[in-house]
Prior knowledge:
Blueprint: E1 2-3, E2 5-8, E3 11-18, H1 33-58, H2 68-77, H3 80-93, H4 97-113, H5 118-139, E4 153-157, H6 162-166, E5 172-177, H7 185-193, E6 197-199, E7 213-217, E8 222-225, H8 229-249, E9 257-258, E10 264-271, H9 277-282, E11 287-292, H10 294-298, H11 306-319, E12 324-328, H12 355-361, H13 363-376, E13 381-386, H14 392-411, E14 421-426, H15 429-433, H16 435-438, E15 444-447, H17 449-457, H18 475-490, E16 494-497, H19 507-514, E17 518-521, H20 526-535, H21 538-549, H22 554-565
Parallel strand pairs: 3-4, 4-5, 5-6, 10-11, 10-17, 11-12, 12-13, 13-14, 14-15, 15-16, 16-17
Antiparallel strand pairs: 1-8, 2-6, 3-7, 7-8, 9-10
Helix pairs in contact: 1-2, 1-5, 2-5, 3-4, 4-5, 11-13, 12-13, 13-14, 19-21, 21-22
Amino acid sequence: MLKGIAASAGVSVAKVYKLETPTVVIEKKSGVPAEEIEKFDAALAKTVKDIEGVKERAAKRLKEEELAVFDAHLMMANDPELASQIKAMIEAESCNAEYATDTVANSMVAMFESMDNDYFRERAADVKDVTFRLKCNLLGLTIPDLTAIDEDSIIVAHDLTPSDTAQLNEFVKGFATEIGGKTSHSAIMANSLEIPAVVGCPGVVDACKTGDVMALDALSGEVVVNPDEDTVKAYQAKAEVYAKEKEELKVLVNEKSVTKDGHEVELAGNIGGFKDVEGVLKNGGEGVGLFRTEFLYMDSDHFPTEDEQFEAYKQVLEGMKGKKVVVRTLDIGGDKHLDYYEFPKEMNPFLGYRAIRLCLKETDIFRTQLRALCRASVYGKLCIMFPMIATVKEFCDAKAIYEDVKAELIAEGVAVADNIEVGMMVEIPAAAVLADQFAKYADFFSIGTNDLIQYSMAADRMSEHVSYLYQPYNPSVLRLIANTIKGAHSQGKWAGMCGAMAGEPNAVPILLGLGLDEFSMSATQILKARKVVKSLSYAEMQELAQECLNKETMEEVLEYVTSKVGE
Length: 567
């Protein structure tokens, strides 16, 4: 048995299809520049045609926004800068086209992989995908056609490119890869296609061959090669139970999130843009608890204009059909950079010039976003949330800019909703400790546990060396959460949570007992969380939460919760 990361939920048992990509061996050779450039142009034209073909086949199964990756690949293949760099090297060194392509491609991949930003690091996979196809075409190598799979199979590979994943048909019952994470293209597409996937599973390629049988458990991240008959039966039974549970959860789509003793909470979804709205509604989301607007900026080559932002916010508000939408203002900096804006060099950018700190200095950027939000407010139920607030003055300064923008628009004769709530993220311990004072000015709090935990424990959540300190259930973190909720309620305000903790089954009972009003999570977690809420007693969870606050360790908390409410 091998262990990896469960990236797209599900369980399946099927034969292995081992994806053997061509081995590309490239050596530097002398060449006649004109001939090599002609060869390169022909290979590039074939590469563009190949990508168009993959996109056409993928269109039968993927949504329009999911096909955007192939538009990005086509843009990359047609990028005159890529072609000009390769041709310049062919001419300068009189070398073969394969070598020039490989050299330029490796340089581009290294550039993307060295970036601090997760989004741009993952774009290295796009460069590899496009240039690998280009090198194969130059060498006359054939890339496997996954659309030809005609029996139930689990694909095993070192990695799956976006092109690979888009070709998966109804016979593909899952895949396992050596590398990858939950945010990689393959994981995102697997979720969309509802194909079980285990990624980051070292040794899986060497452990099997095409035709072997594999049990893939993408709930626990386990992979078993050539399981015995009893093990096969056990995994098939688990698959049936999972399918039944998934079907049963659908009946909860239109139900309220209410405990056995009548206490109601709100379960909302986290989104990155309009493309995620359908998932929230399909899974019974009662609103959007976090709209990450930074993707509008990161997916652009310029600061989005007021009109561009207005259209994006309007689309989401209309799409949510009157349900609450909490929009986080620009949260850039730290690990999220922009190509068109130069951040100051800092020893620790996570604790530096980012989020509201940038917006309070670059007020033109901030005002543009606030104007767009206010204009869009009449199309739905809008809440605006400021990130990375550390002091009461920061919040009041940000809110004053919002009030000024709102007054300016009204003076211009622009309609602005009169029920916009203005709140803040609580992700800095200082804000959690002083929550009762912040609550005098903020309409609501949304607890960002991802940062609150790492700041409280002084442990970078991306560092494997101190990952043991990333402890959502540590009593010190729970006390900060409890204090934030108590502070909000002391002033009659509501408190939500939009960090990953909000959707964890073991956390829901504690958070419920602490009085959290709104839980915001990935859309696919909503129905499972609703099932947990409906199985609990609010009065009993209040007692459970108080006991958890008095524990000494994370392990004690988890053991206690499990003993009281089960896994």
